[in-house]
# Entry
Amino acid sequence: MSIPKKSERRDALWRQVEQRVSEARGGRVAFLTGAGISAPSGIPTFRGPEGYWTVGSRVYRPMELATMAAFREQPREVWRWYLHRKGVCNRAEPNAAHTALAELEAVLGSRFALITQNVDGLHLRAGNTLRRTFQIHGNTDYMRPLEGPPGTFPIPSGLPTIERDTPLDDATWARLVTPDGRRARPHVLWFDEYYDEAHFKAESALAAAAAADLLVVVGTAGATNLPHQCVGEAVRRGAGLVDINPGANPFGELAARLPKGVSLREPAEEAVPRLVSLLKD
# Structure
């Protein structure tokens, strides 16, 4: 018996994708995106080498620095790290996968939902709307007050570029307050915090996944809790599941086992536009 060629296996998988799209025709489609969709834009993954940060002689891992505990001990250093990350994100541009999802929202309207773990803001810059985009880990372009009435505010414009060896000067530090003068923090979900609806649209994201006839997971390793809940809700309610990721991950393994699942080991910038073209036809 001959072994199918790689191209033949790929064609067979895409025929399965076409079937899932056909089954969801006229229904709701949700996308769940992670770092893999932004990697082609040049944004390093959170846990990669660029995620580490040196303070004096100590090197901090993301799991240590991205916490409320760290912020209370050394708020200027945590802000310095996030302003550096914000600069990296702001210099990046949306890629073909981001653009395709923005085009799909324009076509599907209320039948489209986008749940993203990324804090880089590239989906919004590509054209997706806040109304249908649930940024479940926040956005590095925004901040919110440490205490008092809640609110989310853009980080002031015109702040100096923060490189790895750039200190946070007093003038910049003084501007990291809300419009009414309260001390602010980055608008991101930290490791010692919980998802909620007020800040991270957690309930809305779960509802969107549960209502989907097709859920497409793109570029996530599945390292956080809410994405697993979203996938679980969609699958439990009978949605088709497509996972797009060059490497192995829990969602791809799940999709490969499901009758209505497909696991595509392809880069996001190639697979997402192709899938979107099927959904738009």
Notes: The chain has a mean pLDDT of 93. The chain has one domain: 13-280. The domain at 13-280 is CATH 3.40.50.1220 (Rossmann fold). Residues 6-23 form the longest helix (18 residues).
